[in-house]
Design goal:
alpha/beta, 39% helix, two-stranded antiparallel ribbon, 7-stranded mixed beta sheet
Amino acid sequence: MINLLFSLNENYVYPLKVLIQSITDNHPRDSFCMYLLHNGISDDTINELKDFIEKEGNVFKPIKSDTFFRHSDKIAITRYYALEMYLWMFAPYLLPDDVDRVLYLDPDIVCINDLKSFYNKSFYGYSFVATNYKYKTKWVQPFNNLRLRNFESDNYFNSGVVLMNLEKLRKTANANEIVQSIRENKPFLILPDQDIFNLIFVNDILEEDWRLYNMNPKVYEKLKILFPHKYSLSNVENEVVFVHYSGKHKPWDEREKYKYVLGQYYFDFEKKVYPNLFGAAPEKKGRNI
């Protein structure tokens, strides 16, 4: 059974169901145990998700967590980023001890090919496997190093697709260190959970290819112009595993105004999940992942 992890509030349940649909459609012979970390999703929504996930024979395990932060920890929540965005980093201390690895996915993603090529990666002694948008981050790396006071690092990993070595993390990581880092670095955080992930773990992350496992629709538009023989929809169909709609432009918000061609993957799966509501996604505010 493949272990998947999601961490979000009620505002992101709508696209989460689209992500789940994309995963199950591409893995008809596989079974999944899907863990959801949250801090107060309603019972009705939890039950709705349970029915949606388990109708295909998969397992759903929601875990409510309000133990790591004090009520006075206003630092855990900003205007655009909810507390739940941090919870995935606490998976070693929240998931059952017999779960040795889990794949964390942001909810603004769709899966378009078999994810087992990523899920079954060897850790080679590292605690995480993730991708690094070096084409973007190399220009801002000095700024990241300065604000995160991580002066020797030349990497900045994306936290949207992360394979976690829970067995190792339970032995080497510390939940209090994560909490303390969030408290101490609030003034410097721009992408909060991603910043903390890199601040604490940057030297314990094995890099994988973002072009396969974390394709960005905006970047794809540029690549297909610069390298048309290498980057085409045929290439995407055959090789890309995850399309990540990161940033402020979300296909479920912008609808027909969404200008990137890879948005069609989201809309195709959305039609299957919401056949009677297509084109009427509720307007919601939440984190920009």
